[in-house]
DNA sequence: TCAATGTTTCAAGAATCATTGAGATGATGG
DNA sequence: CCATCATCTCAATGATTCTTGAAACATTGA
């Protein structure tokens, strides 16, 4: 994740509808959701508006799509999301563990403390 | 950190000059940097442009300012930054440790594995 | 092949955001 | 008090982004 990708990802996440889409898709897991279902769940938004935001997110690399019959199924790109977190943290932690440590504490509320993590 | 704050923070970080300012200030640490010095370091930008971006960042809560003589010194708001990371992670990890674990590994490159972190 | 369904594409208009330059404000030293 | 320095504010302009509605495209079932 370089600066340019991070910029694009931040821009994608800085819009209410898109942020909600991403959150929804992350919780939806690997099966993902059809564009229409996302629209209903998120906003009651028109199909063209949803399509606009979904393709914006796809350009930014935050979601992926596949066709299933007439529907197009979107899934969250978990790898890119964690890359963004990494980017933020790498930048923020340089000699300032007071940034990382609260983040680490937050992580431990949903992941087992992976103390096996190797120093890259 | 609620959705609205996160949205504002993402918007603030989605602009090249502002993202660079934040990175610069984080590495500058608690002493911070004067507006003029930030401008030179980041961009060679005009003073009014710098002021625009700095106050945008301040509104978003990502930086703080204090006056010192004629200069105004800006510092990164580390707490808000880690709050944003937390927000991203809380949302992204729900039942999907494949998002958190790489982030955790990344963290461990700059922070000691804080396995003492308590489950909130 | 036809009609229906789910989604995308396109063009136009409204809204928001970034940059510029001029001028205002506030602090300092002589 | 005046000149200077550092920064901010404001209004105008240009650029980008979001929304809307109409039309196109792709897939399915009859």
List the helices and strands and how they pair.
The structure is a homodimer of 120-residue chains.
Chain A: H1 3-13, H2 16-28, E1 33-34, H3 35-42, H4 47-59, E2 63-68, E3 71-76, H5 78-93, H6 97-107
Antiparallel strand pairs in A: 1-3, 2-3
Chain A binds a DNA duplex (30 and 30 nucleotides) through helix 4.
The CATH superfamily of the domain at 3-77 in chain A is identified as Winged helix-like DNA-binding domain superfamily/Winged helix DNA-binding domain
Task: Extract low-pLDDT stretches of chain A.
Answer: 113-120
| H/I helix tally of chain A | 6
Order of helices and strands of chain A: HHEHHEEHH
Radius of gyration of chain A: 16 Å
Mean pLDDT of chain A: 82
| Ends apart, CA distance between termini of chain A | 15 Å
Which structural class do the helices and strands of chain A define? mainly alpha
* Overall helicity of chain A: 55-70%
- The CATH class designation of the domain at 3-77 in chain A is Mainly Alpha
Largest interface: A-B, 55 and 55 residues
Q: Determine the strand fraction of chain A and express it as a percent band.
A: 5-15%
- As for the CATH topology of the domain at 3-77 in chain A, it is Arc Repressor Mutant, subunit A
Care to describe what's here?
- The structure is a homodimer of 120-residue chains.
- By secondary structure, the first copy, chain A, is mostly helical.
- The first copy, chain A, has a domain of 75 residues: Winged helix-like DNA-binding domain superfamily/Winged helix DNA-binding domain (Arc Repressor Mutant, subunit A), CATH 1.10.10.10.
- Helix content of chain A is 60%, strand content 12%.
- Chain A has a three-stranded antiparallel sheet with strand order 1-3-2.
- In chain A, helix 2 packs across helix 3 and helix 3 crosses helix 4.
- The relative contact order of chain A is 0.14.
- At the A-B interface, helix 1, helix 2, helix 5 and helix 6 of A face helix 1, helix 2, helix 5 and helix 6 of B.
- Chain A binds a DNA duplex (30 and 30 nucleotides) through helix 4.
